[in-house]
Amino acid sequence: MSIFDQAQYPVMRRLARNAGFLLIPAVLGSPGVHASITTSPPLPAFTDRFPADIPVKGKVTDSNGQQLPGVSVVVKGSKRGALTRIDGSFELSAPPDAILIFTYLGYKSQEVKISSTSQLRVQLETDDKKLSEVVVVGYGIQERRNLTSSVSTINTSETKNIPVAGFDAQLQGKAAGLQINSNTGVPGDGVFVRVRGTTSINAGNDPLYVVDGVFVNNTSLQSVSTGGRATSPIADINPGDIASIEVLKDASATAIYGSRGANGVVIVTTKRGNYSQKTKVNVNASHGIATAPELWDLTTGAEHAALINEYWINTGIDNPASNQTFANRPFRPVSEGGRGLPEEQQTYDRLGKLFRTGQLSNYDLSLNGGSDKTKFYIGAGYTKQEANIRPVFFERASLKLNIDHRISDRVQVGVSNGITRSYRNQARAGDGPQGGLLQSALHTPTYLPETNPDGTPARWAGFDNLQVLLDNYDVNTVSLRYIGNLYAEAEILPDLKFRTSWSADYNNYDESEYWNDKTQLGAAPTYGLATSSITQNSTWINEQTLSYRKQLGQGHTLGAVAGNTIQQNTLKRTFAQGTGFPNNSYEDISSASNRTSGQTWTQATLASFFSRLDYNYNSKYYLEVSFRADGSSRFGSNHRWGYFPAVGAAWRLKEEQFLKDVRLFSDLKLRASYGITGNQSGINDFAARGLWTGASGYPDSETGGDKPATAPLQLSNPDLRWEKTKQANIGLDAVFLDGRLTLEVNVYSKKTSDVLLQLPVPSNTGYSTYYSNAGEISNKGYEVAVRSENIKRSNFTWNTSFSISGNRNRVEKLPVPITQYNRDWIRMQQGYAMYSFWMYKQLSVDPKTGNAIFEDVNGDGSITVADRQIVGNALPKFFGGINNSFSWKSFDASVQFNFQYGNKVLNLNRFFGEGGGTRDANRILFASQLKRWQKEGDLTDVPRLTKAGNNYTLEQNSRFIENGSFLRLQALTVGYTLPKALTSRWNIDALRIYFAGNNLWLLTKYTGPDPEANVTASQTVQGIDLGTPPQSRMLQFGLNVTL
Amino acid sequence: MKLFIRILPIVYLLTSCSDFLDVAPKDAVSDETTINDKASAQTAVRGIYRQLGDDDYYGALFQTIGYLSGDNIQWTGSQSVIQQFISHAVKGDNANVATVWSGIYATINRANQVIDKLPAVNDATLSADEKNALLGEAYFIRALAYFDLARTWGGVQLVVKAATNISDTKGLQRSTLEQTYAQVLKDLQTAEPLLPETTNRYRATRKTVWALLARFYLYQGNWTQAEASASRLITDSRYRLIKPYSAFFANNVVATEESILEIAYSANNTNAHRGYWQPPANNGTRQWAPNDAFIALINNPLIGGNRSSAVAITNQGLWYGNFYYRSPATDPAYILRIAEQYLIRAEARAHQGNLEGALQDLDAVRDRAGLTGSTAVSANEILLAIEHERRLEFAFEPHRWYDLVRTKRAAAVLGLTDEKRYVMPIPAIELSADDALEPNPGY
């Protein structure tokens, strides 16, 4: 067992219950104990037996009298020892005056002098569980109390039943400093994840995900359009196989990941078996439903028509030349050539056709166990999650196989394998008219009928006919994913361990679309449109580490890790498109009369060396330094290598004399760290090079067709280099009242410089952007996490955990403001936060004229682009979660609330729905449009309906920026475990039935259905709500069985 | 020994890292090795045309500035930015204006690359004539690009060398309108002798230069030169007004005798223009459409004549422009047509007092549209008739706005008296990226 084996640590966590394998107290740095017990209990004989030794027998129990197997019993000052048997008993030989040390993970160690009776009764007291737990850190594991860094551990038992596809979405509200927003109700779509703020503009902002030591790809391979959103590669991992998740946050924890650590690191460890354990079977089955929350409030057909008439006549008054009068208003009697009077209009409900009650099902089956030399975990999972809109669903089948084998006492090998097939039935649930499902349902005016007079499906406003879409949608993706790791480790010298591992992350992502001739994209004269895109992403990683840990006597513990890793990532895509199909029965591109195709290939490599030294004195003073050097193929040869150092220190005040006996504190620790991490993800693999590309071709003459062409692509930047984030962190860990109350507080300051960005440059250079290092971004914040055991009785417990985090993001330096998204609604600008909205600020609506009054910032008397200003941003001031869990006899329950405060949302659905009638039959009118100014004296913020002036033609109107703060009842679970007496008759160890509800209640002032919505997967855009379905309300029943 | 073997890979890596970290793209070349022989010169020139026909330039968006800002089109889609052109209230943050600006400069950059690098190419298989022709094409397109910049924004920064460094154009000031037009003329005069006097409707030739010169002189009010240049095309039997009006665009035809220069598209390289015009039923978004006044004109057999074939109506009763309609979307982008040369010469002749000649040219265009001769008599009447004719003839091409500004008729026709609005705003994004760039007054 090595200290750097991430995959192994759950075993350690459970080790106490599974007597057998060697143990680690020394490795973990506990003072005074350095047992190296390697055999099964009891140890029959010792070679260093003294003649005076006497046999010692005894029994170890916990404070409740429960027998404790696997407790390490060591004779102080020697290497002799034993482990307790299954009934807690032990026997060994020791000198008559010897002192025995009893250690057991999760319990306080105890020293007992051998008494004359020689029959010892030892009761071990539980230690605070949180502080003594083992956490996974970069290239190693540590006991929480020994950490100098800031690491959050997620209790996956609380999260794994949340019916979302990826484990990332499950973590919302679960860890301080981790901001997570689910931007859409489409299962399996990407999730907004930030660890301690947004550090970059064009390089990645997502944390690094490490699964069983594999740096997994987290960039969506999607190429078909789903209206701006993109799928999540994380959804390929079955949450049911996950044993634990750690989030590394500060530089001391992340700098060992160097160039990849700036956005935090999420370490995922999957389940493994245990040596010498009877095979256990676990079944988890659940079924449930997903429904939409309260949706948009729309005008009726009659209301819509009346508003259009009003808009028409007003525009005519404002602009007589337009010849718009009452006489020729659009909704006049049919006999006069109009569309009929407003009151004659019907109302058609499209939302009701689109939204549905989706079915959710999830089945996980796992087996784990092991012999004395081999252990295994087999996990099979199937999940299907239907979205709340038809016909979207996500389906995943996964198989996990983890095996470890001991070749000898010193050598162990093992594998982790995860194979997944994720199938997605997709739809354009976002921006874009053609094929746009939600836009077609939401943005088509309600008065427009679904069919033409001749009975054929009607298309309106640039949108597809909803029913046609629902009947003919055929966009789907199959993602085949393998994530695996093969390792061997050996103790080459006492205290020195070597490990080598090979990892692979392979993803075959196969997308196809077929738009038959009933849909807009495939309609005549296109006669069917099909696309096929196959993307292969393959990563291999090789890694070697040497680790050393030594007790140097007199309380000095020293540990060291050094290693190297090399990695290569290749992304390859082949795509084809066909149009002109004979008829709708032919769907393969081979049948298309027009076929086009393409291919792309890109590759990047990374070579790294890293090391870490940690030292502690008497578990009181801790010092840790780490260093990593990374070489990346992405940068110019001048700046290929980056160097990332970090230092962390901790002081456990509890170990000082003045606190040792203060009962209030069970533990008290101060931490501080500082370090530099880097970022290179997200940028183009060849960003530093000056390149020409094969452009689209052009003919030489009227005959002969396109001939090849070339064109300049980008200018070189030989100075392109790493983005660097310096982070300082100060933390306090306190445990009170024998572990009943735990408090963790962190304050941090991050400063990112040399920000990698596509800097806008004057177009007269022939280029509009240029990859460069420009700009600085800061993130400053705090995190508070509290856990308390409010009531702890034998048949009733009540625990509460609470976290709150605040982060202030600021673009400190940016040579040129950078606008984002259509109509540059979002702007990054020096002195403001990322995701700031850049608008014309509507101050009021003039009660006299009904005209919107905008702030004339420069006072020049007219509203020009100079009057646009930042009016808030999409980032919250603070966010967090609160969880209460209860157990009463055989019942258990938990309630999780999440909250977020201070974030703004641009409600683009309302922007279109309050278009003042200027878009006439092209867009819906929301019921809120009825509040428009009509006559002198009206007080409203909805201006008079007209096409003239700025009332409705300024698209960047601050009126559509809304408060997106919310409080959400994220999860409510109630479970009941059947009495053991009953289940044991069926040979069942445990049987629990549960009900789980998610997203049951939402408190917000936001007028759309979901304040977390965001239209695009682009990392530079957040808080724009357009055309995405809200997150579902979900209810599930489930069953857990352990055999 | 065991330890040594295990550490060996690390040592090995230390020495081989630089190779491992050298990854070159498969589909792009370093910009030092781009134009160095005949084939690479040809591909680079084709690349200029493709950019000329890009969506941001003649593919669609540049053209829209020319017709949306006139009086024929109404906004019928979702993007109210379109209404800014129609209301003549374009703001500096108008995304289309910014896109067109960068698209035109990207075209100039591609031309500059050829102009800079081609003269030094030494390839025995590249004859002097071929080399000159390729060079001439680059000069011609650069002239066209600066002409379009000038008539849209006024004087602009003149970049006549390809950037090799991102700060190459730093500090460059805007030239005056006169200087910008002088650059256009200089490039055209450089291109003319380099190019062969052949007919190629997809590529620039000497004849294409004459056609653009005719337009250039028209904008300058140099009537004699305008007439002389236009005559060279009109008298060339390879160009003629083909009947009826729709004959040059309907039924998927390309490169008809009408065309002097058009940008070609293919299934692989489509033209997005149709999508903005066509209604949803035809797979478009109908972002804008002919307005009622224009529909009345073009459907009037005495005014529009057979040009009414350029519009169509949906079964829901909505009119739409049907000039760009193909599937796959291979509608050509018409840059220079013979009809324009007739109308240029008509206008130049009218200004020079040759009213009979002017009417002859005007009626040639009217005749093709199935109309009888113009009833205009005086020079002013004829000029007005030409203006009306151009409104209909080029309704979906970038002329109407530029014509009304050029002839100082925007105030009378559009009611637009603020002359600052006769040019588009310099894009806000360019102003923020370039300290040396001055905004247009009033924006």
Looking at the structure, the CATH topology of the domain at 134-283 in chain A is: Ferric Hydroxamate Uptake Protein, Chain A, domain 1
- CATH H-level homologous superfamily name of the domain at 134-283 in chain A: TonB-dependent receptor, plug domain
How many helices of chain A? The count is 12
Annotation field: number of helices of chain B: 18
> What does the average pLDDT of chain A come to?
88
CATH topology of the domain at 38-167 and 175-195 and 410-443 in chain B: Serine Threonine Protein Phosphatase 5, Tetratricopeptide repeat
CA-based gyration radius of chain B: 25 Å
Query: What global shape of chain A is seen?
Result: globular
Query: Can you identify the CATH class of the domain at 134-283 in chain A?
Result: Mainly Beta
The main β sheet of chain A shows up as: 22 strands, antiparallel, barrel
Classify the secondary structure makeup of chain B into a structural class: mainly alpha
Number of strands of chain A: 51
* H-E order of chain B: HEHHHEHHHHHHEHEHEEEHHHHHH
Distance between the termini of chain B: 77 Å
